[in-house]
Amino acid sequence: MASPEQQTSAIVLDCRDHGESDKIVTFFCPEAGRFTGIAKGAKRSKRRFVNKLELFSLLHITYTLPRQDGLAFIAAAELESSFLQLRKKVELYNAATVIREFILMGVREKECDSRVFTLLHWALRSLDKNHPHLPVIAIFLIRFFDYIGYRPDLQCCHHCGLGVSSQMRFSFNYTIGGLVCETCAAHGHQTVVPLAFGTIRLLTDIQTLPIKRLHRRQFSSLALNESLILLHRFGRRLFQRDIQSWETIITTGDRK
Questions:
Q1: Could you give the residue ranges of the DSSP H alpha helices within the chain?
Q2: Model pTM score
Q3: What is the pLDDT of residues 77-89, one digit of tens each?
Q4: Is 70 helix (H, G, I), strand (E, B) or coil?
Q5: Could you give the angle at the alpha carbon of 188 between the alpha carbons of 185 and 194, nearest 5°?
């Protein structure tokens, strides 16, 4: 007996040709999480799929999940938003590509978390509205790491427990995912990123603010550069691989 047909909002994370007429599409959805399905006849479709399966598009899809392992069946798709600005400006598209790479690395197939979908939708919509792309990436990543269970600890020194204050310098140790004060950092910690007090306060706020208020937080050039270095190195350490898309967005920040 087939699984029941379902409908949901979905963001396209990947789309590739399959055979002469089909497409294999990876979506991220609020209920089903990340899953991959087959759109039969999509390459020839004049109605169901034409111009709808572009990368980063927000769709309303009708689909059937397989009973066991395998591809879902995508019956139909309606376009909700193409996020057109992402296709007009290369820096916005590159930023979306970085976000996509982290989603594909950090979320397994059929792992559900509606918060990640909401965050992904917020990031793409923000880029589409021409918000500065580097702060969008930084905000996305600090929340994304939290949602997948690796929240950076920015409250106190991981080793001695000293609380953050403007009277002491702190660094972020991306091996342990937490802060170290300058006294503890002097004892041989090499995998650290120095952070200004203002950067720590800003990132702490972003971890807790309602998502609709995230744009109210403004990054200084120093805070943005420190944040991107921290998040890049932490992500690379966490996933044990290079972030292939990172080079497309960084002009002055972290290349190590």
A1: 85-88, 90-106, 114-128, 133-147, 182-185, 197-208, 221-239
A2: 0.93
A3: 999 999 999 999 9
A4: coil
A5: 35
